[in-house]
Amino acid sequence: MSALLGRARPAFGLPGRIQEANSKPRSIALVGLGEGGAAIARRVAAERPANLEVHVLSKSARAGDTVAAIQAGGGDLQRDLAAADMIFIVACRGDDVGLAPVVSGIAHGRKHPVTALYIVPSDADGHGEEDETLKTLRGAVEVLVVASLDPPYLYPDYRSTRLRSPRQPLLELPEGSFDVPGPLVPRGFVRDKDNDLTAHGKGAPLGEKMVLVGRITDEGARPVRDSLVEIWQANASGRYHHPGDNHDAPLDPNFLGIGRTFTDADGNYRFVTIKPGSYPWQNHAFAWRPQHIHFSLLGNAPVQRLVTQMYFPGDPLLAIDPVAQSIPDAKARERLICSLALETGIEMVSLGYRFDIVLAGAKSTPLGL
Q1: Rounded to an integer, what distance in angstroms lies between the CA atom of residue 111 and that of residue 107?
Q2: Which superfamily does CATH assign the domain made up of 193-358 to?
Q3: What residues are annotated to the active site?
Q4: Could you tell me the CATH superfamily of domain 2-8+26-148?
Q5: Where in the chain is the domain with CATH 3.40.50.1440?
Q6: Which of 96, 245, 334, 354 has the fewest Cβ atoms within 10 Å of its own Cβ atom?
Q7: What one-character DSSP code corresponds to residue 9?
Q8: In sequence order, what are the beta bridge partners of 208?
Q9: pLDDT exceeds 70 at position 68
Q10: 3-state secondary structure of 215
């Protein structure tokens, strides 16, 4: 169901890990209120999930006929709420949720807790503000505000998204479409010292040398093993080794700015590189990108590719950078900032930094940057 509450992420290969089955399936009642909540509930019901009863209550109860509004939803609401181990209301901004107190009353009469999932699109303005829908829900039940952690496809302040964002509804692929059995990226794809971006010239590159380590996990803190990780970045002067970058900064012949490695059995990775410089871009007047490193996570097959960016602590450009600010949640933005980790560096040679990546869940790393 989580994929329907925000932008779905492609499946990511977790070779060598076995999921433990739930010991006892729980029954869940999902009640969609209003037009937006009803649409989400219908999409969930179309998947025919086991142990889930779905009710769609899109009719308004403001006219006073509560019974008719409930009956219009079909099914036996009281029976299903009484039998459920967990009860969720789902609604979106602007929905008519006048029936929330009724659902809550039925559930509480049988001592069942009710949680409302209040869905906010990631590209909505002021998504933390209270509207009448949220006020009504909070007056009846416990509320969990759900907003996408990933940036929206269209963020007008980030000018290039105006051209590349989809103009038509996205197609929903069947579950498992991105699952590819077995590790399809050969070990030979990563050569010796590919994780050391400072070792491929005739001499040492210019700039502040650094060691970057981290761990890639799923939402349960389980390691993503034997998975390909690639990084690319500008040099210390803020210029990429790429023909498309022609701004007035020097190239470094000893620094190409790309590296790759596999995670180990515990999901750890390690790179040796140079701290990148900031650079100007033509997004708006006096626009400069903060220092950052791009990450490409390839799971065990290229079709599973996920991308993100890592930033550095204390960078004053972050607060005015449209790319970073396109992430709607402030705490999620903080998860893109690496931390100083001196013990991972090399004594008298390089500073150490740590950047852990979580692929799913409430504390996941924002992706799509």
Answers
A1: 6
A2: Aromatic compound dioxygenase (2.60.130.10)
A3: 240, 279, 289, 292, 294
A4: Tubulin/FtsZ, GTPase domain (3.40.50.1440)
A5: 2-8+26-148
A6: 334
A7: P
A8: none
A9: no
A10: strand
